Amino acid sequence: MNRRSFLGAATAAAGISLLPGHATAAGNDLAALVRPYLDRALAAGSPSVVCGVIRGAHTHVAGASQAGRAPDGRTVFQLGSIGKTLTATALARAVSRGRVRLDTPLALPPGFPVPRKGSRRITLADLATHTSGLPSLPPNLLAEADPYDPYAHYTLDDLAAGLAETTLNTQPGSTYLYSNLGFGLLAQALAFDDVDAMLWRDVAAPLRLRDTTTTLRPDMAPRKATGHLAGDAVPDWHDHVLTGAGTSVYSTADDMLRFLGAQLRPDRSPFRDAIELTQRPRFTVDRTLRVGLGWHLSTLPDARTLTWHNGGTGGFSTCAAFDRKSGTAVAMLVNTFSQESTDSPRPVDELTFGLLEAL
């Protein structure tokens, strides 16, 4: 892998560019609607794809494959940065319980220096809205990294050393700058060295996201899709430090539909106030994009607001989006790494948004 491809893959959990199965009996038309999007994902180079949709009371999950058995709602993919919305939900739950406030300054244990620029300190809200000023990655992450598993070697000691070398790009709270490091630190601030357990205990388990986890369980392994990069099979990513950025999160289309269902109807979830808080706009990037806690909110030409996040790892690309006004949602997972070009978005993002609009 050349260095350009390596750097692209290492930051893939960001996955952000500024973008404009089983069906219920009454949802048979959803199958016909979804199928062309699966075909287009395969035509764009995905070895396999699975897509889940919600339209009102109806849901549908379907998959397709270039060869062999097609994935279904229980097939396991690496999620990438959609996992940031789980971390943001954990933050919102901590706020609703009175454990922290959004304006609480970032605090880490002794030996983990928090970078400063000017008099204003980084807050938890800054981390959750990508306005902390932190760079995308720690400055010492890539030097010793395996191109096919770039976070696996990174330890808490490395993080401490990296923070000592980190310089903020902008003053906290002033500018949107997407940061995996920022979300990794947010999770560590909430549950230092216990992030995996926190995400399961505070988000995945209460929402019944049974296969959404940072560590592949033995029972999940037979159901896992193999990731690909440029047509070659590649290993999963592993991370023990910046997991809150979504770098090593696994999930399924079934779990993503449950999660998106909670976003569409927070009143039916175990923690309505926390979910509402994550979706509330907190920073305006430009006239078409605002940021909540983790979620991005895009304003379309017809004035509709789509709430979304995308992501990826070295072998997977994902996107999830929903429109609360119409009661529609789409999650699409493919088992290949892809990047947007200067003149077009990633296929998985374009297809997700297109399908959501068609619903």
TrEMBL record:
Q: Which domain of life is it from?
A: Bacteria
Keyword Lipoprotein attributed: no
Alphabetized, the UniProt keywords read: Signal
Pfam family membership, one: Beta-lactamase
**Signal peptide (residue range):** 1-25
- The Beta-lactamase-related domain extends over 33-340
InterPro entries under this entry?
AmpC-like, Beta-lactam-related, Beta-lactam/transpept-like, TAT_signal
What the entry lists under SUPFAM superfamilies is as follows:
beta-lactamase/transpeptidase-like
PANTHER family referenced in this protein's UniProt entry, alphabetically: D-ALANYL-D-ALANINE CARBOXYPEPTIDASE (PTHR46825:SF7), D-ALANYL-D-ALANINE-CARBOXYPEPTIDASE/ENDOPEPTIDASE AMPH (PTHR46825)
Question: What is the name listed in the Swiss-Prot or TrEMBL entry for this protein?
Answer: Beta-lactamase-related domain-containing protein
Organism this protein belongs to: Streptomyces plumbiresistens
The upper taxonomy is: Bacteria, Bacillati, Actinomycetota, Actinomycetes, Kitasatosporales
